Amino acid sequence: MTDATYHFRQQRGFTLIQIMAILGVLGLVLTVATSSYLKHQSKHYIKEALVEAGHARQVVAQNVKSNADDNLKDWSKGYSPKTGENNAWSVYIDPASAAVVVSLLTTKEPATLLWVPLKNSQSKDESNPQEGKILNEDGLNWVCVVKDDAIPDSMRLFAPLSASVPKPGMSDDWVSADCH
Q: If residue 25 lies in a helix (H) or strand (E), which one and from where to where?
């Protein structure tokens, strides 16, 4: 082979720079796709946990109706704590206060949301900043408490919160419309 024929021969394959550029673009696409998938998965877990919290609120409301005359000490009667797929969330009823505790374990620290029952005799108070978060379900008023919200004072609560109820730490933008 002469030098002249060697120069006219076509190169085959890719250069190192071309391969590195392709890998860089592929890495960027995978990063964006993974981030989107994790956000979607977190939203799914949140929705699942809030649906289960609705079931827990119904159990408390049934206990209140069926034990209106009795001084029931365990408001979680008939409900067992639930956990989600891969332990991504948990929902339980505090037996002493009837508060429904929703914990999401998808982040580094658990994010907690509380559904706290209020006394039924409470009328709507327009001066209360949480008034928009009150939900009447099965004849029982509930207030949704998220991060940076103040827990209503004990005079408004159905029963005093026990010390085992965690402080709410869930961001307001993670929760459903009935909690806004």
A: helix 16-66
What is the rounded distance in angstroms from the CA atom of residue 171 to the CA atom of residue 150?
A: 14
Query: Residue 51, CB half-sphere, CA atoms under 13 Å: how many?
Result: 8
| Domains observed in the chain | 32-179 (3.30.700)
Q: Which residues are CB-contacts of 148 (< 8 A; sequence separation ≥ 6)?
A: 172
- For residues 18 and 69, what is the distance between their CA atoms, to the nearest angstrom? 78
- Residue type at position 120: N
3 state SS of 73? coil
Task: Look up residue 37 and give its two tokens.
Answer: 């998938």
This prediction's pTM: 0.76
pLDDT (tens place) for every residue of the chain, 180 residues total: 555 555 556 668 889 999 999 999 999 999 999 999 988 888 888 889 989 999 999 999 898 888 765 666 788 989 999 999 888 999 999 998 899 999 988 667 778 889 999 886 545 554 455 555 788 887 888 988 888 788 888 888 888 888 888 888 877 767 766 675
Which H or E run includes 140? strand 140-145
